C-alpha cells in the first residue's frame, strides 16, 4: 500500500517515515513540503539517510497519488485538505486537532470558525477500536489526552474529580523554533504553562464523559528539558474508597488484552521511541494516583496514527509497531 505524508518535513512526519520503514504492508511514496520541493528527505531527516531516496514534493491534496494519507500539518491546515481526500475516497488519519471535537466545542476552544467540518472517529485506539476499524477518516488524539485518558480510563466511572498533571518533552511543540523551545530557556529548567487553559482539556473531558463518567477534569502541563516523552500523574478522587489490591487488579484486567498498554512502573526511558503506554496505580483510599508514560511522537502521534491505519486497512493492529525501546 502506498502512503503519502502531508507535512513530512515536521517532527511527526519524520516519525511516520521512520516507523513506516518497518511496516510489512505500507511504503511511503509521497512526502510533501511547501518549502522544500525537490529536496531529499534525508537532508531534513538525517536519521533516515540510506533508508529512503524520497524527495519532498509540494503536491496539492487533489493531485496526490496514494492509497492512504497522513495529515501531519498544524490544525487549520488539515481542514483545508481533509475534504478533498474524503471526496477522492482516499483513507486518511489526521494528526492535527481539526476533527477531534464537535464543531461547537472546537470553535470555542480554538477561537475560530471551522470551515470544513465533518464527524470523524476519535483515534484513541484502545477506547474506540470498533469505530476506527474500517473508517475512512480518523482524528488522531492529542498527545496529552492519549496518556492522560489511558491513565484514568479504568477508574473513570468511580471518580468524581480527576486532576491531570503532565510533564512533556519539547518535541511536542513541533519543529519551529520559539522563545519557549530556545535551549537556554528550556535546558536545565522546568516550568508550568497554560496552567488552567490548555486546549487539550476539552479532549480529556470528552473522553471521560464518553466513558460514562460525570467526573470533573482539570489539567496542568509542564515543560521538561527532554526531547521526547510525556509523564502524566492523574489524581483520581473517588466517590467511595478503593484498596490498592482492588485498584491494581482493575487496571490489570482492563488492559489485559491491550498489547500497547503495559502495567508496570512508568519511566519515560522505557517507552521512548515506542508505541507503548506504561501505567501503574497506587491507592490511598479515596485518592488513587495513576501514572502513565508515552512517547509524544509515537503513541502520542505517529505510532498511534499507524495503529489506526492498521485497523482502518485490515492489517494486524501492531503491524510495524512491535519493537522495544532503548534502555538505558
Ligand atoms: N509534536 C507532537 O508531539 C505532536 C503533534 N501533533 C500534531 O501533529 C501535527 C504536526 O505536528 P508536528 O510534526 O509536531 O509539527 P511541525 O511543526 O514539526 O511540522 C509540521 C509541518 O507541516 C507543514 N506546515 C506548517 N504549516 C503549514 C500550513 N499552513 N499548511 C501546510 N503545511 C504546513 C510544515 O512543513 P513545510 O513548511 O515544509 O510545508 C511543517 O514542517 C500538528 O497538528 C500537531 O499539533 C499531535 C500530537 C503530538
Ligand atoms: C511542548 C508543547 O508545546 N506541546 C504541545 C503539544 C500539543 C500538540 O502537539 O497538540 P495538538 O496536536 O493538539 O496541536 C502543547 O502543549 O501545545
Count of alpha/pi helices: 11
**CATH uppermost class of the largest domain:** Alpha Beta
Bound heterogens, unique: NADPH dihydro-nicotinamide-adenine-dinucleotide phosphate, N-acetyl-L-glutamyl 5-phosphate
| Main sheet: strand order | 7-8-6-9-12-11-10
In CATH, what is the homologous superfamily of the largest domain? Dihydrodipicolinate Reductase, domain 2
Query: Biggest β-sheet, characterized?
Result: 7 strands, mixed
Structural class by SSE content: alpha/beta
Overall geometry comes to: globular
Enzyme class: oxidoreductase
EC number: 1.2.1.38
Pathway: Amino-acid biosynthesis; L-arginine biosynthesis; N(2)-acetyl-L-ornithine from L-glutamate: step 3/4
Main location: cytoplasm
Q: Could you write a compact summary of the structure shown?
A:
Catalyzes the NADPH-dependent reduction of N-acetyl-5-glutamyl phosphate to yield N-acetyl-L-glutamate 5-semialdehyde. It catalyses: N-acetyl-L-glutamate 5-semialdehyde + phosphate + NADP(+) = N-acetyl-L-glutamyl 5-phosphate + NADPH + H(+). The chain is α/β, with parallel strands linked by helices.
Amino acid at each position: 500500500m502506498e502512503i503519502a505524508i502531508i507535512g513530512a518535513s515536521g517532527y511527526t512526519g519524520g516519525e511516520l517515515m521512520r516507523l513506516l520503514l518497518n511496516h510489512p504492508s505500507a511504503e511511503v511514496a509521497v512526502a510533501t513540503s511547501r518549502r522544500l520541493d525537490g529536496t531529499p528527505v534525508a537532508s531534513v531527516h538525517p536519521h533516515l539517510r540510506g533508508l529512503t531516496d524520497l524527495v519532498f514534493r509540494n503536491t496539492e491534496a487533489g493531485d496526490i497519488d496514494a492509497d492512504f494519507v497522513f495529515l501531519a500539518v498544524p490544525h487549520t491546515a488539515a481542514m483545508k485538505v481533509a475534504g478533498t481526500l474524503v471526496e477522492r475516497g482516499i483513507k486518511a488519519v489526521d494528526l492535527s486537532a481539526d476533527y477531534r471535537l464537535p464543531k461547537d466545542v472546537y470553535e470555542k476552544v480554538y477561537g475560530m470558525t471551522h470551515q470544513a467540518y465533518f464527524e470523524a472517529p476519535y483515534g484513541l485506539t484502545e477506547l474506540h477500536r470498533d469505530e476506527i476499524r474500517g473508517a475512512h477518516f480518523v482524528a488522531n488524539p492529542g498527545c496529552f489526552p492519549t496518556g492522560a485518558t489511558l491513565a484514568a480510563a479504568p477508574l473513570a466511572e468511580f471518580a468524581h474529580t480527576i486532576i491531570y498533571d503532565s510533564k512533556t518533552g519539547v518535541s511536542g511543540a513541533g519543529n519551529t523554533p520559539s522563545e519557549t523551545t530556545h535551549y537556554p530557556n528550556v535546558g536545565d529548567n522546568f516550568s508550568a504553562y497554560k496552567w488552567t487553559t490548555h486546549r487539550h482539556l476539552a479532549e480529556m473531558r470528552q473522553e471521560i464523559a464518553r466513558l460514562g463518567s460525570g467526573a470533573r477534569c482539570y489539567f496542568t502541563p509542564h515543560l521538561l528539558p527532554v526531547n521526547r516523552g510525556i509523564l502524566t500523574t492523574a489524581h483520581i478522587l473517588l466517590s467511595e474508597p478503593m484498596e490498592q489490591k482492588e485498584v491494581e487488579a482493575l487496571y490489570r484486567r482492563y488492559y489485559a488484552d491491550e498489547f500497547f498498554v503495559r502495567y508496570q512502573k512508568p519511566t519515560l526511558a522505557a517507552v521512548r521511541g515506542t508505541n507503548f503506554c506504561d501505567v501503574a496505580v497506587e491507592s490511598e483510599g479515596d485518592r488513587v494516583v495513576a501514572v502513565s508514560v508515552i512517547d509524544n511522537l509515537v503513541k502520542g502521534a505517529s505510532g498511534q496514527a499507524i495503529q489506526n491505519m492498521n485497523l482502518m486497512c485490515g492489517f494486524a493492529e501492531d503491524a510495524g509497531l512491535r519493537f522495544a525501546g532503548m534502555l538505558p
